[in-house]
Specification:
Layout (H helix, E strand, L loop, with lengths): L9 H10 L1 E6 L6 E4 L2 E4 L6 E5 L2 E8 L14 E7 L4 E7 L4 E4 L2 H5 L5 H4 L3 E3 L5 H8 L4 H7 L6 E2 L4 E3 L6 H6 L12 H7 L3 E3 L21 H9 L2 H11 L5 H15 L4 H15 L2 H6 L1 H15 L16 H13 L6 H18 L12 E5 L10 E5 L3
Parallel strand pairs: 1-7, 4-9
Antiparallel strand pairs: 1-4, 2-3, 2-5, 5-6, 6-10, 7-8, 11-12, 13-14
Length: 395
Amino acid sequence: MEGPSADMDPELARQLFFEGATLVILGVPERSEFGIDANSWQVGPRFRGVKMVPPGVHFIHYCVTRNGGAPGETGPRTGIFLHLEQKDIRLLHWNPQDEEMVPAPQEEADKLREQLMSLDPFLGPYPYESMRRWVSLSSHIKKEVITKLQPKCGSIYAFPEVLPTEQMTHTEDRTRHNLPRYDSVCQSYKEGMARLPLMKQREGTEIRFSQLPAKMYPENATPAEVTQHSMDLSYALGCLLETYYPGQPLELLGELQFSFVCFLLGNVYEGFEQWKMLLNLLCRAETFAFQHPALYIEVISVLYHQLAEVPTDFFIDIVSQDNFLTSTLQVLFSFLCSPSMDKALRKKAMRFRAHLTKKFQWDFEEEPLDCAPLVVELPEAGEGDSNALVHNATS
């Protein structure tokens, strides 16, 4: 990590050193990759941490260099969300056995305060030139969101440890579950997969994402109401908010950003899946959008900065050449840009649609495939009598 920018005022640098937070990190193997927020570096022999860190939420991430590995070859990425106060000091030790950073007790970290000047040559400065980018990706991630979502173990793993739900080491164990013997010959790929034991993530390592309600429609809903709630997901969105963020709908945007950062910087595919789920819910909740225009103004701002981080072809399914984001946003714009929508929200949505059309060359004018009518042939009711029922594809 390089020193402060050459054009930074020395007095300002001194003030940032004492007013900003400090991360002291001891024992990280050389040539490992270490990053904070949207920045990453290769660890050198003098590295002991980061100084001048602005107060607020930050995401540190690292990949350790494996012994005997090829140059530049690192293990899977691990990340930690931190909320730092002004003049805060955090101490992390490298655990070589588990190959991860372990936070030290705060009392031990506080003892380092008097040694800050001596540690200064070994601390890399926080890169303030990239701070704006990080803030745009994390503006809604508050301390409460981190506490709610971060795994109980404190670390977010790109490839978390998984364990079998049952050992099933003996033939009789597999017979009890109607699984084939280990010593029998596989007849197909499907059979081979069936021989693998059921796995679950090690307890305490799961990101505690919110979950969709079991039913997307109210109890005792009529078939027409079920269809309506399948097209307009406002009921499902309201249930999710009531369960996880009662009275605090903006905190859902914190989870939207949390999941995106987990994927973008932490290499966690589960984060991408959660981001897609939340985005789909928000983009298909028409009634909710009319009732909460201020929330959707923030949704557009969050998406604007997130989509600036990915290449233009990122969301295209390489198998079907379908872009899930185009069809999802198409639904969103269909009601955000309607004349009856809140004026400020409508204007922002139209500008965002124009921006995406220009940058990604996405066509939002065609009718979404999942909104096209689907004709379902019914069984014959009598001699030569047939009927057709038109359904919406989302029902």
